[in-house]
Amino acid sequence: MSDTASTPTRVDGRRADQIRPVRFQNHIAPHATGSTLIEWGQTRVICGVTIDESVPRWMKEQGATGGWVTAEYSMLPYSTLQRKARDITKGKIDGRSQEIQRLIGRSMRSAIDLQKLGTRTVWIDCDVLQADGGTRTAAITGTYVALSLALHKLIADGKLMENPLANAVAGVSVGIVNGEALCDLCYTEDVAAQVDMNLVMTAKGDFIELQGTGEESTFSDAQLASMLSLGRGGIRQLLAAQEAALAQA
């Protein structure tokens, strides 16, 4: 570990490579097939999974086999410092929410064998109770736990013969703040970041999604390498936290 990574330099005293504390409260939504509340620092997201024993019309029309996974994401009005209006009051989903729910869906479809899922649809609902940076990565990381719980219930109920999950999946944010590469940005760091990046990866170390933007400046190969290294380390910590949460369940 480098001296930079080992020395606390951040607003909350963390090292550059250190993620905020992560905790899962499983079975938070009794009527969902699987659910968890992920508490990641001050960010809190409820992730719920329900199962529909059918597939979308487009799959039937195209003769596609297997199942489907889709997601919806929203931030509750009181999740931010200033009240955020519900999408329904605006008559449409805002662009950011649409982008994030598509990302969640893609991430979980990469984790599951849709053929083994059978002709059913997995509905994922992620609702942000409190936002302090990293809500999309928290939603992805929490959803994997909720999805695992839901599929285990289907197996226990005799609706699935084998687990269709192929890979554990987690997501983490990284960025450049005041010229330094940091892992898992809180809100204060996120708004000050010169570079903002989100990584979604499997337990095998493969990338599902890599979203990186120079908010105020460009970034170098060396800075990219630093962020990727920090991100991989953060993903390992999250995978361990997910495994522990599922072992307790």
What brief labels describe this structure?
249 residues, alpha+beta, Ribosomal Protein S5, domain 2, five-stranded mixed β-sheet, four-stranded antiparallel β-sheet
Chart the SSEs and their pairings.
Elements: H1 3-6, E1 22-26, E2 34-40, E3 43-52, H2 57-62, E4 68-75, H3 87-90, H4 95-111, H5 114-117, E5 121-130, H6 135-156, E6 169-177, E7 180-183, H7 187-192, E8 195-202, E9 207-214, H8 221-248
**What series of H and E elements makes up the topology?**
HEEEHEHHHEHEEHEEH
Question: How are the strands ordered across the major sheet?
Answer: 1-2-3-5-4
Specify the number of helices: 8
Assign the structural class, choosing from mainly alpha, mainly beta, alpha/beta, alpha+beta, or little secondary structure: alpha+beta
Mean pLDDT: 93
The outline comes out as: globular
CATH topology: Ribosomal Protein S5, domain 2
Query: What is the fourth-level CATH superfamily?
Result: GHMP Kinase, N-terminal domain
Strand content: 25-35%
Level-1 CATH class name? Alpha Beta
Kindly state the percentage of residues in helix. 25-40%
> N-to-C terminal Cα separation, in Å?
33 Å
Tell me the total number of β-strands. 9
Describe the structure.
With 249 residues, this protein is an alpha+beta fold. The protein has a single domain (3-248), classed as Ribosomal Protein S5, domain 2 (2-Layer Sandwich), CATH 3.30.230. The chain contains 8 helices and 9 strands. The protein has helices at 3-6, 57-62, 87-90, 95-111, 114-117, 135-156, 187-192, 221-248; strands at residues 22-26, 34-40, 43-52, 68-75, 121-130, 169-177, 180-183, 195-202, 207-214. A 5-stranded mixed β-sheet has the order 1-2-3-5-4. A 4-stranded antiparallel β-sheet has the order 7-6-8-9, with helices on both faces. A hairpin with a 2-residue loop joins strand 6 and strand 7. Helix 6 packs parallel to helix 8. The longest helix has 28 residues, at 221-248. The chain is globular and about 50 Å long. The chain starts with a helix and ends with a helix. The model is unreliable at 1-5 (pLDDT under 50).
